[in-house]
Amino acid sequence: MVTYIIRRLVTAVLILLGASFVVYQLTAAAGDPLQDLRESNAPNKEQLIQQRVALLDLGTPPPLRYFKWLGGAAQCVVPFVGKCDLGLAINGEPVVNALGRAMGQTILLITAATILAIVIGIALGIITALRQYSTLDYSVTFMAFLFFSLPIFWIAVLLKEFGAIGFNDFLRNPVFSPTSVIITAICMGIVVVLFMGGTLVQRAIGFAIGAAVTAGLMVALSVTGWFRAPGLGPILIVVFGLGVAYLATQLTAGIKNRKALYSALIMVPLGLIAYYVLNPFFAHVTGWAILALAAVTILVGCAVGWLMGGFDRGQSMRAAALSAFFIGGLVMLDRFMVEWPNYFNNGRIRGRPIATIGSSTPNLEGNWWIHNLDNFTHLLLPTIALLLVSLASYSRYSRASMLEIMQMDYIRTARAKGLPERTVVMRHAFRNALIPLATLVAFDIGGLIGGAVITERVFAFTGMGNLFVASLLPIPDPNPVMGVFLITGLLALVFNLIADLAYSVLDPRVRVKA
Amino acid sequence: MTTPNPATPSGQIPEGPERDGLDPEVIPQEIKGLSQNAIVRKRFIGNTPAVISIVVFVLIALLAFSSIGFLGVPGWWHYSYEEFSTQINGGHPTFTNLFNWGDHPFGQDRIGRDYFAMTMRGTQQSIIIMFVIGAVGGFIGVVVGALSGYFRGWIEAVLMRIVDIIIIIPLLILAAVLGRIAGAHVSGNMATIMLGLFIGVIIWTGLSRLVRGEFLSLREREFVDAAHIAGASNTRIMFKHILPNAVGVIIVNVTLLMSSAILLETALSFLGLGVRPPDVSLGSLISDNQEAFSTRPWLFWFPGLFIVAICLSINFIGDGLRDAFDPRQKKFNAKKAKDRGVHGSAVKDSVSAAAIAERTDGPSGRPDAGGTPREDPPSRG
Questions:
Q1: pTM to 2 decimals?
Q2: What 8-state DSSP symbol labels residue A94?
Q3: In chain B, which residues have their Cβ closer than 8 Å to the Cβ of A441?
Q4: What's the pLDDT tens digit per position in A69-120?
Q5: ipTM rounded to 2 decimals
Q6: Cβ separation B375–A500 shorter than 8 A
Q7: What is the 3-state secondary structure (H, E, C) of A118-171?
Q8: B4 to chain A: which residues are within 8 Å by CB?
């Protein structure tokens, strides 16, 4: 194993060296770094040219310049020196600084999209695999192909138009028209029918209930002016909390496991108490406090599950911790909604909350909640765009993987010994179906840090992808390009290695070549 | 399944006894006595989405190439994509129904050019680039994969390291540099073909790994030994004996390569790195007109719809080909499967084939969804 890792690492370093040399030469050959100055009419043109030649060391031919750059870059990997020299960009800024800033933006942009794409994609894939060749399966398959064929810049512009401008216009007078209520209700009814299956009568009832609930909800939201002053309130928190507790129990332990169900249900009154107790404290909260609260919430859930005892404490603990986490999320969500009117009427927002460019509103004043709402409204659209295009491959892969697992002998054994279908699916099949996906996920994360070039471009995020394109056009600037390449190349190689190792750790049948 | 068969997301078809085709005793009645090609054709034609997609794609291609003409051959459309004319009715589309197109069915752009002609030109570009990329990338990928899979040893080591290097070089740099060179020397259709050539030269890496995997398993088979003993040369064995057996994997993956090539070309043109003005591409049309969405939405809809239509039909064709080439695939009948039971386990015959077939749909080369092909998974054993 160790030999294998070392061999892979050595190969990776050699590949990176070779590729970086090629990239440096290509970028240097891509254009003339003095072009804008040569064409300028500035009186001190000669002096400006001299300055830039000195700044970027243009006197040295590119092959030699690469080795100079490599000498500086090599300092980054020497431990405990704390010096990292990736050269200067064309505007004289050290590349290390620009990279740090861009990386922060990119991570902000891709984190939510990646996590959501993985969770939703896998869930869809599993559900469609369990109901193979149903209408649901066909619709999801078609949607996957459709999303896979959509150019992201097209989706992004459409989202800007309808998601941001359209929604902001709607918020000016947040009342649904009767037509939109009817159409949405019918659509939701169809979605419910797709997901439920069953006999024709059952489906008709499902359609009616789905449509009626949607219509009622939309009318209620319009009448109460909910979009202007949203909120959940204690009653809705309890209602949703009960739903969360049942769902979490069903997924982790099954409703029949009463101990687990009760420990999950205990989380609901606890959440309600937390809602009242924490409210005064929430006014001046920080990110770290929220993180600490989340940790405490999960610990409380685990503790309750453990105290409930029973033949399988683990199941109760998981059910309780999961519902505790989500009920805590509901309490947070309510607090954000309380802050929403303040954000909406803020002088910098002026009633148009969904943003189309950038990652935050400049000079926005307000507390932690306001700033996070601001981040949320900025990240909403790019996240949806990225989510849609990456959802397709996850759902396809998890479907394929689940289909293969479901016809394994050990699944038949599990059924034969009388396990409930829930246990067969969640414990025996689902976990094994995740193994091949682990490599896919590791690999995707490695690729995504490089930035979603086009998404960043359309939504004016100054992340890695934007830095990369801006340094290529109109004037090719090798140092920032090399900086971005170094990070993406390194991550691609490292995550490749992680993917392979994760595979052999998760699946003992797979052994790496020593 | 007796052998552990860890899934390989990179899209390699699992090796093992099942790869060797159908057990003679379980050959379904419907394919008895048919040649391999006939079976594939029969299966493909039975796949409704794929057949519809082929028809749609051929129609789009015919429309694009016949309407505004190509290579100096004039088309039947009365405007060209470079021609300015006076704006009528603010440039609104005049398309009312299929038999009444009006003067400017897709409207006119800001400066009065006919948008139908421009969209058709962009479609031409996309289709040309797609086929050039498919041909060039497919050829290099097959040759490199075949050489490294067949000879192994140092040839494989060197070629696969080259693949490793090319895979981690960002496509944008290569496109920027090569596009610059191409743009400086040629224009018109030649520039488009050059762009396709350059992208094809760098996009073959994923395919070469798949072909290598296929050759690695096929070279151990008896018919290769037989050919050796009969005195066939290496070239002959590689291209006359092994390659025809790997043709399914190759065709399917070249099709998928082509569908990602369309998105790649439009993305590059969107960034200003692909097709350059005054020539137009579907990507550059969207890029130029994205600001005008609120005033002239049609400038935005038509090129986008054409990209989606082309890409979707190619994807469905690829999917249909994959099902058709899979030797374990049985013709699937949704009704029968449903009658047999609700659970996946009850329809296991068709499940197994479909599941493994799906393995090969590697989403490669997607510019924005983290689509760099991954390295080989660790071997089993």
A1: 0.79
A2: B
A3: none
A4: 887 777 776 666 666 777 777 776 778 888 888 888 888 888 888 889 999 9
A5: 0.76
A6: yes
A7: HHHHHHHHHHHHHCCCCHHHHHHHHHHHHHHHCCHHHHHHHHHHHHHHHHHHHH
A8: 509-510
